[in-house]
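Sat 14:20. Reprocessing the chain from the morning session after the first attempt stalled halfway. Input below, unchanged.
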Amino acid sequence: MSMIPVKSRWPKLSEDLEHSKSPGHCQSCGSQYDLDCWMEHDDLDHGTETLLILCRLCSDRIIEPHPRLYECLPHNQPRPGAMACCVACTLRLGLRCAHPDLKANGGEGLPIRASKPDVTFVDGRKNGKDFGYQLETYSIVPVCTGRQV
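Finished this time. Tokens:
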């Protein structure tokens, strides 16, 4: 039995959102605050290379009710083309890095230099219940060795 390709059943937010594809702006409303990076999945729920940048308000409003699967990526995960150091690079195409040395583009690899994060554990009490979380911050913004401005 052969598998016949089926046309995508669900719309893709990466194609439907109105604002520009830039690491520093929400693709839904254009906000520059409280941004997260989301990975779009295909119809079989496999992760793709397609990324979205959404503010918390827009992601709360559109991600959960959307039929396609989206995954919020950790803030410290490298995302070539969608990081702060990629904003002014001439080799950025939307939220994708087009540098020929990038492994995803068939190259040998494109090093990104970053400092180790400063890790802080925030501990507290709220309504008689203990809570806490780990906060990772960087004192130096990651730098791409292949960045071209």
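The longest strand covers residues 47-55.
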